[in-house]
Amino acid sequence: MITIPGDRRNPSWLHKIKFVLDPIGYMESNYKQFGEIFHAPISGNYDPYIWVSHPQAFQKLFSTNPSYFDTVGSVYIKNFIGKDSVVAAEGKRHQRKRKLLLPPFHGEYLDNYGKSIILITNNAVKNLINNQLFLAHHLMQNITLEVILKVIFGVPEKPRIKQLKKAIIAWLEALNSPLISAAILVPSLQINLGSWSPWGKYSQSKQKIAEIIHEEIAERRQDNNDSYSDILSLLMNAKDEQREAMSDEELHDEILGLLFAGHETSAAGLTWAIYQLYKCSNVRKKLLQEIDTLGNNFEVKMIVNLPYLSAVCNETLRMYPPLPKTITRIANQSVNLMGYNLPMGTPVNGSIYLCHHREDLYPNPQEFRPERFLERKFSPYEFIPFGGGTRSCIGQALAILEMKLVLATILARYQLKLLENKTVKPKMRGTTLVPTGGVKMSFQGLR
Length: 447
Ligand code: HEM
Prior knowledge:
Elements: H1 12-21, H2 23-34, E1 37-39, E2 50-52, H3 55-62, E3 69-71, H4 75-80, H5 91-101, H6 107-111, H7 114-126, E4 133-135, H8 136-153, H9 159-173, H10 178-185, H11 198-223, H12 231-237, H13 248-279, H14 281-292, H15 300-303, H16 307-319, E5 329-331, E6 335-337, E7 340-342, E8 347-350, H17 352-356, H18 372-375, H19 396-413, E9 414-418, E10 426-429, E11 432-435, E12 440-446
Parallel strand pairs: 2-8
Antiparallel strand pairs: 1-2, 3-5, 4-12, 5-8, 6-7, 9-12, 10-11
Helix pairs in contact: 1-2, 7-8, 7-19, 8-13, 9-11, 11-13, 13-14, 13-16, 13-19
């Protein structure tokens, strides 16, 4: 077999550190040195541990009939969220879980959330103080956490859900520490010295989240009230083909997984969008003109159909894909990829970031230019912020709805100012590509 090009001089832990500290630099330098397909072992001691970025490779990676790749739940996700969440599940169990989870994230269910998203955005922005500095990332995390709590539990204002919000913030704060990220993977680093030690704090917040979720499930089981229409209730009532419902443990892991997946990624996307809108005043002006055409018809159905707003969201997700790589795939047979024969069992990562920065697809890729999405239609292997195939993002429709409504509400109603003089660089927070420093802004009152 011909060896796949890549850096084999350094150990995998060094690759991992390089990726976490500078994900973009890491992917780009590998691409420049080794080309369309390279070996870069950021996890485990695999050789080869493949990365691809060409649409042809994505077509094969996402293909379901025939399927050349499976996915295994990552150890990180299993330890971080729980073995029973859809993201960690594999094979038939994974398919079963997707079938249960997909319906509430589509169509009529989502229509109900539009007004709540606008309300949550207005409440969050109104809490900002005139002329005071705030971090756009914090604002967006606050909004997206409220939204996902609303979607999952229906009643974010309930005291128990407010407590849950606090515990989730503490749990996710831990991701800022590289020590915690490492400890999630390495049990010997999990040293619990009480609430002042990083792992102690992390464990306590996770324990608190578990208690609250279990309390909520128990209360609902006792209530036996079928008037709830949120995702927790839908999941509690859902039955698979064998007429089996989810256990409490399964429900807990599923809810935690959705809270995590549905909050961090959307917050990152929104922060990048607001950053670019305030950096590129011509884009902001053009978008405002479009939003202003709505006049008194500032309604969910009208907002979501605005073409330039859609293009702005797409361009943001192109330039800064919140998940810069797909979930790792494993070849389930020997397969030819980009001219190389990969043996069964080879792990493959799709670099969403590199694909979205290809000159042949997106000329001058470092330029934020939403117009490219109005001039050309991209295939599902060229524009892939939500991945594809059997692992594609379950929350895609919700994420897009949220992005459009939050951005339109902020731009239409409020004035903000960007307080960053230098280009804001991306970094990894857990699995998500976030802006370093959180993007400093100030609130300038109503528009
Ligand atoms: C801008 C926001 C978001 C982005 C960019 C995003 C992106 C992604 C990507 C790239 C994947 C992996 C796909 C693959 O490997 O093929 C994924 C998976 C997933 N996403 Fe999202 N996501 C977003 C928001 C959400 C939301 C709002 C939810 C739910 C509430 C969600 C739930 C999930 C779940 C459950 C999976 C795992 C699916 C599986 O394992 O079958 N995501 N997402």
